[in-house]
């Protein structure tokens, strides 16, 4: 299983400061395998790996991460950005910036989910955008296809423009457009015929349709289970039509969704929606980061890396490491900083939830909620100290302890216990010569 394979690599090589050819090679091999396993087409995999390499090499490793973890972070970010994370949330919006009716043209092979998606889109546009929607089928080869569109349209309560098997696709589309204008529809969605494979006649037909109705959105519908073939199909449709977006269907299945990466790589167009059910409410705005995680199949590890990235103030951690390296002493200010970082990460109990089951078992027995409370209390005690006391804890004798305890609303024993814990930590830090959060936590778990 991939997550386990990656987890193994992720753990190695702690303590290196930068990502290098040497310490990333094994990891990149795993990532490459992961992508191929997720059915990403080979050219897309190659391009992706080379991009990650460029981004990663020389990047500093946050002290709380291993190079493996740092690389996972780069891989995830780069994959999410390739999936469209950089395009921002508006990338999944449909455009209506035209004189109504705005025309949406659906393109894609047979069986990928075009007709179903027309129904889903009609429902979505009516409910989310209060649009008046008309649908029409230009699939004149199979009477059943027209009836299917009529049925899904009725199901969502949109209007349907009837067509017949002997009609010509372009004429059907123009008649529907005319009807939509006269009846004040905001949107006309045109369903088209697909073939089982790429077919020149089909491409010409849909290109002619496009020329006649000038859609504001031309959506390429692709089945997430299509795997390696997705890249060729996407290329053919992208060459024949000025696509404006992609709909990735059947993501509720167990496909890892490598098709998403292939299609993005070849078309560069935004994936706007994801189909997640046969039912007509099964349409979601596409989420690039979630897709990246799905393709890599390592949600849990990523969540942890992400948490560490967010929570640990890199500068603070590096300053501390530097200070200790040049012989500085770990004082109560540093201790407090570490406690605060722990809090930023959502506390110990939150972190524990994210660890893989085996690690959780290894740490069992420790009561994390209790530990979190303890952390908050220790912070309160430090807050009651003067700056001088924090920098020179050895100043803190009996009378000062009493004052601090009163200030923090605790017993003097609590202050003693806290100082003892601090001294333990100080000793440990001396040994570690400036490690960070993760090191500290690991040793706390024993
Ligand atoms: P078309 O030939 O491109 O028009 O494809 P259809 O809309 O007829 O869909 C083909 C099959 O895929 C039907 O059985 C649909 O119910 C199913 N389907 C479409 N979209 C999805 C989806 O997002 N999830 C699942 N599980 N099935 C879907
Ligand atoms: Mg159809």
List keywords for this structure.
about 450 residues, binds guanosine-5'-diphosphate, Four Helix Bundle (Hemerythrin (Met), subunit A), single chain, alpha/beta, Rossmann fold, 21 helices, 434 Repressor (Amino-terminal Domain), about 60% helix, disordered C terminus, 3 domains, 8-stranded mixed β-sheet, binds magnesium ion
Could you characterize what this model shows?
- With 446 residues, the chain is an alpha/beta fold.
- It has three domains: 2-88, Up-down Bundle (Four Helix Bundle (Hemerythrin (Met), subunit A)); 90-286, P-loop containing nucleotide triphosphate hydrolases (Rossmann fold), CATH 3.40.50.300; 312-445, Signal recognition particle, SRP54 subunit, M-domain (434 Repressor (Amino-terminal Domain)).
- Helix content is 59%, strand content 9%.
- The protein has 21 helices and eight strands.
- Strands 3-2-4-1-5-6-7-8 form an eight-stranded mixed sheet, with helices on both faces.
- β5 (217-223), α9 (230-240) and β6 (245-249) form a beta-alpha-beta unit.
- Bound molecules: guanosine-5'-diphosphate and magnesium ion.
In short:
It is found in: Cytoplasm. This protein is of the alpha/beta class and 446 residues long.
Q: Can you count the beta strands?
A: 8
Tally of structural domains: 3
Sheet bearing the most strands, described?
A: 8 strands, mixed
**Spans where pLDDT lies below 50 across 5 or more residues:** 434-446
Keywords: Cytoplasm, GTP-binding, Hydrolase, Nucleotide-binding, Ribonucleoprotein, RNA-binding, Signal recognition particle
Catalytic activity: GTP + H2O = GDP + phosphate + H(+)
Binding site for GTP: 108-115, 191-195, 249-252
EC number: 3.6.5.4
């Amino acid at each position: 299983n991939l997550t386990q394979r990656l987890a193994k690599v992720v753990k190695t090589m702690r303590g290196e400061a930068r990502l290098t050819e040497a310490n990333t090679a094994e990891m990149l091999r795993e990532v490459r395998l992961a992508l191929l396993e997720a059915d990403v087409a080979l050219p897309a995999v190659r391009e992706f790996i080379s991009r990650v390499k460029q981004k990663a090499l020389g990047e500093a490793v946050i002290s709380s991460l291993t190079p493996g973890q740092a690389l996972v972070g780069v891989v995830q970010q780069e994959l999410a950005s390739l999936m469209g994370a950089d395009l921002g949330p508006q990338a999944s919006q449909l455009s209506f910036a035209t004189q109504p009716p705005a025309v949406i043209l659906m393109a894609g092979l047979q069986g990928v989910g075009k007709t179903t998606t027309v129904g889903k889109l009609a429902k979505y546009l009516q409910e989310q955008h209060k649009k008046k929607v008309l649908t029409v089928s230009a699939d004149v080869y199979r009477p059943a296809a027209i009836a299917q569109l009529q049925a899904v349209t009725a199901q969502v309560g949109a209007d349907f423009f009837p067509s017949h098997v002997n009609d010509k696709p372009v004429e059907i589309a123009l008649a529907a457009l005319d009807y939509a204008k006269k009846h004040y529809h905001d949107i006309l969605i045109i369903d088209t015929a697909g073939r089982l494979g790429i077919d020149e006649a089909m491409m010409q037909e849909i290109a002619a349709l496009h020329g006649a109705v000038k859609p504001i959105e031309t959506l390429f519908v692709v089945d997430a289970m299509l795997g390696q073939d997705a890249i060729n199909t996407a290329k053919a449709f992208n060459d024949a039509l000025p696509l404006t977006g992609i709909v990735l269907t059947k993501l509720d299945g167990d496909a890892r969704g490598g098709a998403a990466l292939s299609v993005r790589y070849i078309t560069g167009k935004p994936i706007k929606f994801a189909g997640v059910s046969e039912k007509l409410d099964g349409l979601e705005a596409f989420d690039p980061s979630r897709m990246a995680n799905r393709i890599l199949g390592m949600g849990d590890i990523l969540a942890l890396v992400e948490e560490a990235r967010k929570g640990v103030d890199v500068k603070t951690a590096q300053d501390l490491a530097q200070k200790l390296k040049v012989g500085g002493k770990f004082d109560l200010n540093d201790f407090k900083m570490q406690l605060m970082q722990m809090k930023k990460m959502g506390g110990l109990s939150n972190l524990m939830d994210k660890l893989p089951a085996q690690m959780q078992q290894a740490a069992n027995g420790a009561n994390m909620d209790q530990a979190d409370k303890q952390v908050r209390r220790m912070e309160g005690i430090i807050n009651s100290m003067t700056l001088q006391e924090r920098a020179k804890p050895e100043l803190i004798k009996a009378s000062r302890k009493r004052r601090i305890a009163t200030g923090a609303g605790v017993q003097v024993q609590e202050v003693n216990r806290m100082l003892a814990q601090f001294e333990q930590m100080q000793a440990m830090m001396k040994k570690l010569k400036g490690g960070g959060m993760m090191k500290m936590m690991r040793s706390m778990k024993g």
